[in-house]
Amino acid sequence: MLIAEGWEDYELLDAGDGEKLERWKDLVLRRPDPQIIWPRALAGKEWDRADAVYLRSSEGGGHWEYKKPLPQRWTIRYRSLAFYVKAMSFKHTGVFPEQAVNWEWMGERIRRAGRPINVLNLFAYTGAASVACAEAGASVCHVDAAKGMVTLARENLHLSGLGERPVRFIVDDVFKFIQREIRRERIYDAIIMDPPSYGRGAKGEVWTIEKCLFELLTLCRRLLSPSPLFFLLNSYTTGFSPAVLENMLRLALGPVGKGDLVCGELGLPITSSGLVLPQGVFARFTAP
Question: Which of 60, 198, 203, 217 is the most buried (most CB within 10 A)?
């Protein structure tokens, strides 16, 4: 397991009884996580000090309950990178702190490449990975179907002082974009992908990761340069083990993927108990 231990502005204070208690710089949020089936380490009064709590609804979804007025958004930093955080719908904040280990890994690979690197970031959300790659010196194509998320990604790039870096922000369906890129004969040295479990496009297109992921991976293979640098596949889909991602990536890349292919879990250290909270799985291909 890769553990994101380099944070100062984020801290997982405690986790237990189906919830996690997190510090996002100066504000504390309390969010549900159904995999946390062990008891809390901190007393209830510590949990009650949270500035906002996300409450699930029995009918699906949920809402935030605020103990005090929160700013519309605020800033957190990871090393030289900066991101906006906000209490978003579906309990999200706009940043997945466990991904910091991947930002470090990608940045190191790009810096060590010794050549211009062109990165494609798919299902790119609010752009933390795009910002990390741009900071390392890569040209980045950032693709997401949600206009609001792409806008926030652009703002994160500027917030990190990287607004002049070569980053293309694309609002589009990932499948359609990739098919057009293949027709244009575009190539990329690295691909990042963090697909959702389920999604629906603007014209009713349905995405399910079980049925669509492998086809998408095989299409992406056609976009890889003859000397690819890396391919990173992330997933938060319940029931997907790291080995599942590794198998799919290995089969999809075929001869192109001659190099190292590893998989594993991402985790966050829990301050109160010393335990580690699993937060998603990954598979990484790295060129020799």
Answer: 217
Domain extent, residue 190, equals 97-286
Q: If we measure between CA atoms, which residue out of 103, 84, 81 comes closest to residue 93?
A: 84
Nearest-5° Cα angle at 232, 168 to 287: 105
Q: Report the alpha-carbon distance of residue 36 to residue 16 in Å, rounded.
A: 5
Pairwise CA distance, residues 48 & 46, whole Å: 5
Q: Is residue 217 part of a domain?
A: yes
pLDDT tens per residue, range 193-244:
999 888 776 666 677 888 889 999 999 999 999 989 999 999 998 889 999 9
**269-279 core/surface letters (b: 16 or more CB in 10 A; e: else):** ebbebebbbeb
Do the beta carbons of residue 126 and residue 149 sit within 8 Å?
yes
Mark whether 126 and 264 lie in a shared domain.
Answer: yes
Q: List, for residues 156-196, the tens digit of each pLDDT value.
A: 999 999 999 999 999 999 999 999 999 999 999 999 999 98
Tell how strand 27-32 and strand 52-56 pair up.
parallel
- Strands 81-85 and 139-144 come out as unpaired
Name residue 161's amino acid.
G
Rg (CA), the chain: 19
Is residue 206 helix, strand or coil? strand
**In this predicted structure, what is the pLDDT of residue 203?**
65
Are 277 and 259 in contact by the 8 Å Cβ rule? The answer is: no
Task: Supply 147's token pair.
Answer: 């206009």
